[in-house]
Structures are given as C-alpha cells and as structure tokens.
C-alpha cells in the first residue's frame, strides 16, 4: 500500500515539476494558434503609428526586427486612432498607441480580435505613466516592451514568464533586466527577437489560408522601419503601380479601374476618380 | 498509518484549493470592506489610494496601498459576474481574453464572492494574508 502511494505521489510530483517548468525557448510559444489569414507569404502587416515621438525610434527598430522574418514583413503607416487612450482597432492591421494609461500595473498590453483562429485586427498600448519615470524611461525598457507587444499581435506568446531568471535573448522572454546589464555581465539582452521567435513565426505561418484578414497596402510604404503613407494620406503623391493593372478607363481618363491580383482568385479592385484638371490645374493625376 | 496521516493532512488543503475557500476554514471575505478589515486584523495598514481602470475588466477597481505593495480590488455586482470575469484570465495570469498584459511584476489573482483581487509582487506575508482571506490564487505566477 505504502509503495503504491509513493508511486502516486512520485508521479504527481513529476507531473507538477513538468507543468511548472518555464518554457526555455525550446518549445512552442505560439499564442493559441492565432494567426493572420493570408493567401501567400511573405505578407505585409501594417503598423499604425499612434505613438509619441519618444517612441518612434523603438517602433522603427521593432518593425525592422520583425521584418527579418522570412514570412512576415511589417511597415509603419500613419495611424488611424484619434484618441490613443482608447486606441480603437482598425480592421486588417495593428494600431500602436502610447498614452498615459495610469498606474494600473502594466507597461504595455497587446490585444487581438479573432474570428476562429484568424486575427482580424490588433492594438498595442504602451503606458507612458510608467515610461515617463526614470526606472522605465530607458532605451532598453522601451525596446523590450515595444518588441514584445508587437510580437504578440502576430500570434506569439512568451518564451518564458519568470521575471527573475536568466535572459533567453528574446524580447518574448519576461525579465527585470531587459538589456542584461544588472547582475551577470554575460547576461543576454532581451530587447529584440531571437532565432527561436523567427522559427516560431515561420511555423505559425507555414500554411496558407484561402482568404485574408490582412489589409492590403494601397499606397507606398517603406517596409521595416519607415514612416509609410497609408491610403488615408490623401495628400501623399502616389503612383498607380501599387493598384495593379489598369483594366478600364472612361470619361477621358478621369475614371479608372485597377485590379491587383493576390493569387488564388483573390484580387483588389481600386476605383479611381481623378480630380478635374480644370480645377486643380495640374492635370489631376497625383491625387486620388 | 503514515498513508492515512498524509491523506488527512492534505485533505483540507485540497478541498480549500478546489473550492477557492480561505485556508484554515475561516469565513470567506466577499467584499471590499471585509477585505480591508481582514488585512488590518492581519497586522497590515491598507489605505485607499486611487481608482484604477483596466481596459480588459468591466468594472473599475480600488487600489489599496500596503507599505510599498499595492492591491487592485475589483468588486462586481454579483459573485457570478466576478466569476465570469475571472474565467477570462489565463492560469498564468498573463492573458485576459485575447489581451496579453505586460505586468510590472508577477501577477497573483484571487477571487472570493464579488471580489477579484490582483496583487503584483513577491511579498510572501501579504500573499499569505490574501490566501487566508480569499483562498488560494486562481491564476498567476
């Protein structure tokens, strides 16, 4: 009888230890299998810039870093949020916001909206209430948190959630020492993604979907770390190439229809009504 | 004999954990005033600091400062409402619904009656006091 109890207790302890072990960077850190639906790789996800100038550099770096993934590109576009405190989402993209959200215990939050396993929109909030304090107003903390929150919106979970163990060298690893300079001089920096993050993204997006939840980028935007122009940037000078092939032109060229093939039968149709050349004086072209 | 002692010694802990009851068989604290009273009785000096609003919770909370530590206390209209909100929190305390939260410190979530209490920190004495009032944490690190 005693022997059997020892077996049971021993097995239970073993299971508890296994369950309690931190993820060490070897296992999966997909967030519930959530992913953006898309019909081809690599796909480009727009990051709406609704952050203060203090964050611009870190948004640029995070965008560039995540764009190193072989299946995913990010491009920074003009934000569509009127009030960063609310940071309302925009379908098909991620809005990144910064504001003073109060002493509520968090540095940042990443939210996704889903349809089944498909992410349809996302937001990131960065809490300036804390980032305006000396402890967190450092490049290391800003880069770490920006990188992690943006990473969540792709469907990534944490690699590890222990605040006080050694750094894994990934921004998806919780830490109290983002740049790894406090205790151990050989400590890794957790300010940016590591190879395991890129591998995980590759696994999440290995398959293709029959439809897309990602907004198409209609206007020019620098992939990976630049301020792009979105379709909301009405005054931006845009070419017509990004709309695809001109399939119809009527009304002496003032009304045009373009089609952009996305593959697998998917395409974007853009209707353009050019401004009256007699009014704007420049022949109309160059403005939507 | 050892087996019997072992089993009976663990039973109250297991039952308390499963039922969310405070350890030691004390009466469960189910509202804000009761929690404050309990913490004072345990030797702490909690003081109301401010209202806190979380984007992922449906009610506003009260921040209780206890020395350098802080509790966020959310009181719901009914125990069922508190339970429904608690069900959206992942076991590790890092996710609420489909929102990932970058906490300042290790989260510990407790629920009892209409109360949902969040403690971010590592103070063992405070955690013991919360367990005695609210039962074992249902989510957290």
Describe the protein.
The complex is a heterodimer of chains A (288) and B (141). Chain A has 288 residues and is an alpha/beta fold. Chain A contains six helices and nine strands. In chain A, the strands form two sheets. In chain A, strands 1, 2, 3, 4, 5 and 6 form a six-stranded mixed β-sheet that branches. A three-stranded antiparallel β-sheet of chain A has the order 7-8-9, with no helix packed on it. In chain A, helix 2 packs across helix 4. The radius of gyration of chain A is 23 Å and the shape is globular. Chain B is built from four helices and eight strands, in the order ααβββαββββαβ. In chain B, the strands form two sheets. In chain B, strands 1-2-3-7-6-8 form a six-stranded antiparallel β-sheet. Chain B has a two-stranded antiparallel ribbon with strand order 4-5. Chain B starts with a helix and ends with a strand. In chain B, 34% of the residues are buried. Classes of the chains: A alpha/beta (288), B alpha+beta (141). Chains A and B meet through strand 5 and helix 4 of A and helix 1 and strand 5 of B.
What's the order of the H and E elements of chain B? Answer: HHEEEHEEEEHE
Order of helical and strand elements of chain A:
HEEHEEEEHHHEEEH
Low-pLDDT ranges of chain B: 1-20
Largest interface: A-B, 30 and 26 residues
* Number of helices in the DSSP assignment of chain A: 6
**Silhouette of chain B:** globular
Poorly predicted ranges of chain A: 1-25, 220-243, 248-255, 262-288
Considering DSSP H and I runs of 4 or more, what fraction of the residues of chain A is helical?
A: 10-25%
Strand content of chain B is 25-35%
**Which of globular, elongated, flat, extended, rod-shaped describes the shape of chain A?**
globular
